[in-house]
Amino acid sequence: MNQFANESFVRRNLPLFTAVVSIAVTPKVILDPINVPKLIALVILGLVLLAVLMPHFYNYFREFKLLTITVSLLFMDLIAIVLFSDNFSAQQIYGTFGRNTGLLFYLSLGIFMLISAFVSDFKTINKLLVFLILTGTVSAIYGILQYNGIDPAGFVGLYNPTIGFLGNPDFFSAFQGLALIACISRIFSPKNSTLVRVIMATGSALMIFSLYLAGAKQGFLVGLIGIGSLVFFISWRKNQTVGKGILISSLAALLLLLLGLINKGPLAAFIYKSSLEARGYYWEAAWRMSTEHPLFGVGLDNFMYWYRRSRSLEATNWNPGVDTNAAHNVFLDYSSNGGFAFLIINLFLCIIVASAIISRLKARSKQDINFYVLCSIWIAFQAQSMISINQIGLAIWGWVIGGLIVGYSKNVKPDLSNSQIIGGSLKKNADRSSTSLVPAATVLRLVVAIIVGILICTPLWTSAYGYRIALESGKVDIIQNAAYLKPLDLVRMVQSARILNDNQFESQALEISEAAVKSFPDSYIAWKNLGACSGLTPEREAEVRKQLNRLDPLNPEHKLD
Question: Which domains, from first to last, does the chain contain?
Answer without folding.
Answer: 2-284+294-440 (no CATH), 477-561 (1.25.40)
